[in-house]
What does this fold into?
Amino acid sequence: MSLAASITVRRDGFTLDVELTAEPGEVVALLGPNGAGKTTTLRALAGLLQLDAGEITLDGVRLDPLPPEQRRIGVVFQDYLLFPHLSALDNVAFGPRCRRVPRAEARQNAQKWLDRVGLADHVRKKPRQLSGGQAQRVALARALASEPRMLLLDEPLAALDARTRLDTRAQLRGHLAAFPGATVLVTHDPLDALMLADRLVIIEDGRVVQTGDAATITAEPRTDYVARLVGLNLYHGRADGTTVTLPDGFTLITASASSASAVFVAFPPSAVSLYPSRPDGSPRNTWPATVMSVSRQGGSLRIELGGALPVAADVTPAAAVHLGLEPGREVWASVKATEVRAYQA
Amino acid sequence: MVCLVLGVPLAWVLARLEFPGRRFVRALVTVPLVLPPVVGGVALLLVFGRRGLVGEWLDQTFGVSLPFTTTGVVVAEAFVAMPFLVIAVEGALRGADARYEEAAATLGATRWTAFRRVTLPLIAPGIAAGAVLCWARALGEFGATITFAGNFPGRTQTMPLAVYLALEQDVDAAIVLSLILLVVSVGILAALRDKWVAA
It folds into this structure.
């Protein structure tokens, strides 16, 4: 059940223009900052929003002229939208009942789905008696019980606390793997995207800026947003052999020559070394810098540096004390050529 | 009952659909709230009277005449009391999250099914409150009824009309009738007050 969608939606001052494909059984994550158009894309796929242009095809059938109730697309909404006046069981049975499945059969089926998500003991409860994680699982069971051809999830884990999130994410992963149709998942959390999805589609400002599997995205980000998500320093420049010239004239040396002329260069903050004075010896990429800010990042400290090349560096707390790193301090930064990766822009 | 059948769909239309002239329709629906009931009665007479705009056509095609009949009483009271229901239900509908209807649609529910199985239960307290208000207003209705339907004992005489008549002939009977009316009203309002406040 493969999806091919080309979606254009215009709003005041905002245009969403997205191409999207998904294969049967594939989980595609739409990742992007708030207001990028992820949820709008999902609503357009579900039929809750009219397209201004484009088309949506699922298994060769045009979906965009159909109203949402005829599309057979399961949606798990961000705040789940469980019907507050119905029990968990009747919530899950709602979809089949709308398709004229007899009441007893629909309930039996709903019971089966609730068993499957591990909520066999909570069938009689009303949504307000369920915890966040339980409500999320009921919402998933409700979407799956109507046997959708495609599954859409809008920030499925955003409303959960950190601990529940961990468990629910693992369970969700299992359920998505068992679902035969295509799944499109919206999230702003890179961890959710990396853990749950086979393929990532990065949306910024209403456009797709990068697609690829987790390995590609984390190794070769193409925008500042993605670079920040995966924790890399990213620059855009022109390459000539092993020398990359950035727009402001700064040059970085890479270990291997690039064949393309327009390139991205990326390196992790941990590859940046800081010295109190100009270092001697091998590192060729060396420049004076000023400490802008210091923050905690896991077990090390993240230093934001200003100067000729704005860069983030990770140092150990001991090194930070030794160097006396505080905002305004002048240091020398260097990064080894072997750590700098250049790839075609 | 007439108010429920007419009023709930009307409120849904006013709350959920965008259409040109919605403000005008809403104004028209609520105008009996501010209109003196007697004026409402006169308006009804002009429209549904034997020589009225609609009345004349009704009379000629179906031989039906509304003024001064029991049906006339119902029409008059519905006219005056319905705004209370429409306003209460429209408010409840606006308060209810329209996204539940969207969730229902993605599960395969048509608009009508979504309204019946999701929205209606969600706004039930609002409808109950509106119906009580509406009924209370209709019970006390005087002006429009006497103008449009007259005051014929057993046919178009309502309790307030009976009280008014009795006051001129037999004050004791008027007091008894008033007391009955008072007790019934207070009883029902007290029983339903919780729902009313909750909505």
